């Protein structure tokens, strides 16, 4: 009987050992299966992220549109006051050119000042007389009363420069671009009347 008992105990222990091995084995299997499942999910997620980002089109900055062509600059328009001064200067030049012993005249007006360049007839000897300067000054002041200072010259170089300035002003350039030069011309010429 002892033998039988020990045999039963031994068999029971074996059975217990086998079932405990099975339990351990099934726990191990579950743990291993969980590890593989987690690894599979991680690698699947990484693969999905990498694949999705690799397949997405690259974001490049949009090409800049070409700059619109600049509008053509409008033709310079003469302000009404400047046009009025140009008309007065032309009218004065004609009146002065009609005077005795004068071939032609050029007049530049800026504000209350006038610069007059005259080309004398060949028969006039010497320089511009004081009487001629006073006559020219009177014509200018009678026709344009707001003129306070009149500079009169018969010097060929100065007259040529005044013609160039008058032509540029008539073409639309502002008188302000010539103020320094006109001031210098005025310094060289003694004004006829102030």
TrEMBL record:
| Positions with biased composition (Pro residues) | 60-79
Record keywords: Lipoprotein
Q: Which Pfam families match?
A: Spore_YhcN_YlaJ
| TM annotation in the entry | none
Task: List GO BP terms, alphabetically.
Answer: sporulation resulting in formation of a cellular spore
- Identify the InterPro entries for this entry: Spore_lipoprot_YhcN/YlaJ, Spore_lipoprot_YhcN/YlaJ-like
> Region Disordered: start and end of each range?
58-87
Give the source's domain of life in one word.
Bacteria
* NCBIfam families linked: spore_YhcN_YlaJ (TIGR02898)
Name the record gives this protein: YhcN/YlaJ family sporulation lipoprotein
Q: Which organism is it from?
A: Thermanaerosceptrum fracticalcis
Q: What is the lineage of its organism?
A: Bacteria, Bacillati, Bacillota, Clostridia, Eubacteriales
């Amino acid at each position: 009987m002892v033998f039988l008992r020990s045999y039963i105990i031994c068999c029971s222990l074996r059975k217990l050992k086998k079932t405990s091995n099975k339990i351990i084995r099934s726990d191990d299997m579950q743990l291993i299966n969980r590890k593989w499942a987690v690894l599979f999910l991680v690698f699947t997620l990484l693969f999905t992220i990498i694949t999705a980002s690799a397949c997405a089109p690259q974001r490049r900055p949009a090409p800049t549109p070409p700059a619109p062509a600049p509008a053509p600059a409008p033709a310079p328009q003469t302000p009404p006051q400047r046009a009025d001064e140009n008309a007065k200067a032309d009218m004065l030049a004609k009146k002065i050119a009609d005077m005795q012993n004068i071939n032609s005249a050029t007049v530049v007006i800026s504000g209350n000042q006038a610069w007059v360049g005259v080309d004398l007839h060949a028969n006039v000897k010497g320089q511009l007389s004081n009487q001629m300067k006073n006559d020219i000054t009177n014509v200018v002041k009678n026709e344009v009363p707001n003129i306070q200072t009149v500079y009169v010259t018969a010097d060929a170089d100065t007259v040529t420069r005044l013609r160039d300035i008058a032509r540029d002003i008539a073409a639309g350039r502002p008188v302000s671009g010539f103020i320094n030069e006109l001031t210098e011309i005025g310094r060289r010429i003694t004004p006829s009347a102030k």
